[in-house]
TrEMBL record:
Top-level taxon in the UniProt lineage: Eukaryota
UniProt xrefs under CDD domains: D-galactonate_dehydratase (cd03325)
A GO molecular function held by the record: metal ion binding
Record protein name field: Enolase C-terminal domain-like protein
Keywords, comma-separated and alphabetical: Lyase, Magnesium, Metal-binding
SMART domains hit by this protein: MR_MLE (SM00922)
Obligatory cofactor(s): Mg(2+)
Keyword Cell division among record annotations: no
């Protein structure tokens, strides 16, 4: 049994936060605690937990998870659960590397050899996506996701929705599937119209048709449309997921492994969703460590459907991508819509610590962009 000797975090561009844990025997594990736009808050939480957990047995992953959840009095939420995710993923990586096996071998073994994936096209202000979709097709993808609209007013002109339908049709005409992310920026009067307009064009799913703070509205919308409804990136534990499963308003659950407390809680959420016949399609517009952690869960999850990966996503505009910070970027090669499962020990990626340390030296925190309406009002991003 190796006790935790050191715990470090590294803020790196474009907007990621990596965690390194080393035990007294020199075994190392890496995690990701990225919380887009709130890096400093997560770092503060990690500072407190690092002081507390040094000297504890690194093998006791569940004990440390439960300590983080139950002994803080205040629990859950994006900051605590993202910090916990960084620690949890790193501890799983450390333990599996020490044993010389992939993490999935500690989770019951794999159920599949390949992981179905999709990538983003367009951006926060989506325009012509046909060229980008063709580029994704050339990369090996068979499915993509795009933002539904630019920012909208609470009640906007119905004409603001027409472009979304045309973009979905353009992608479908290329023989690809298209998920449509409403991004919580479409309010109820518009969301009902857009879901109805998209229905004849069979989107792969509509994501966050309303914000998850409106479960009643989502349930009502779910009863009005045949489009599969996906959500979950802003739900941070199984307790927050539960009401959406109970009211039957979600078809595809999208927990983010870096926001739900890591591998441990992702496994529990997936198992809970299986009992409601709900598929898992993990949210991951993040870095290579979070993506590798998702792969370790995806491969042994019976209700896994498809995995988001941020290769070339519009946020990665600083020169770094999921192929950065690792020495084996070839693991992300996409063929016919799938990535072959990672086979190395731990997370299955080889961390380039020298690059991480170099680029973290002066890394600035990423700030979430905001939308301002034509009359100065703040709109949902």
């Amino acid at each position: 049994m190796g006790k935790i000797a050191t715990m470090e975090y590294f803020r790196v561009p474009p907007r990621w936060l990596f965690v390194k844990i080393t035990d007294e025997d020199g075994h190392v594990g890496w995690g990701e605690a990225s919380l887009e736009g709130h890096t400093q808050a997560v770092e503060g939480c990690l500072d407190g937990w690092f002081d507390r957990y040094k000297g504890m047995d690194a093998d006791q992953i569940e004990h440390i998870w439960q300590m983080s959840w139950r002994t803080s009095f205040y629990r859950g939420g994006p900051v605590f659960m993202s910090a916990l995710a960084g620690i949890d993923i790193a501890l799983w990586d450390l333990k599996a590397r020490k044993l010389g096996v992939p993490i999935y071998q500690l989770l019951g073994g794999k159920l599949r050899d390949k992981i179905k994936v999709y990538a983003w096209i367009g951006g926060d202000r989506p325009g012509d996506v046909e060229t980008q979709a063709l580029a994704r097709k050339a990369q090996g993808f068979t499915a993509v996701k795009m933002n539904a609209t630019e920012d909208l007013g609470w009640l906007d002109s119905p004409s603001a929705l027409a472009d979304c339908v045309e973009r979905v049709k353009a992608v479908k005409n290329l023989g690809m599937d298209a998920g449509v992310d409403f991004h919580g920026r479409v309010h109820k009067p518009m969301a009902k119209q857009l879901a109805r307009a998209l229905e004849p064009h069979s989107p792969l799913f509509i994501e966050e048709p309303l914000l998850s703070e409106h479960p009643g509205g989502i349930a009502a919308l779910a009863a009005q449309t045949t489009c599969p409804i996906a959500l979950g990136e802003r739900l941070h534990s199984r307790w927050e997921v539960r009401p959406f499963l109970e009211n039957g308003c979600v078809d595809i659950l999208q927990p983010d492994i870096a926001h739900v407390g890591g591998i441990s809680e992702m496994r529990r959420i997936a198992a809970m969703a299986e009992t409601y016949d709900v598929a898992i399609a993990p949210h991951c517009p993040l870095g290579p460590i979070a993506l590798a952690a998702n792969f370790q869960v995806d491969v042994c999850t019976p209700n896994f459907a498809i995995q988001e990966m941020s290769l070339g996503i519009h946020y990665n505009n600083t020169g770094q991508d999921i192929t950065s910070y690792i020495k084996n970027p070839e693991v992300w090669k996409v063929e016919e819509g799938y990535v072959t499962m990672l086979s190395g020990p731990g997370l299955g990626i080889e961390i380039d610590e020298e690059q991480i340390r170099a680029l973290s030296a002066d890394a600035k925190p990423w700030i979430s962009p905001g939308f301002i309406g034509p009359h100065g009002e703040i709109r949902e991003w």
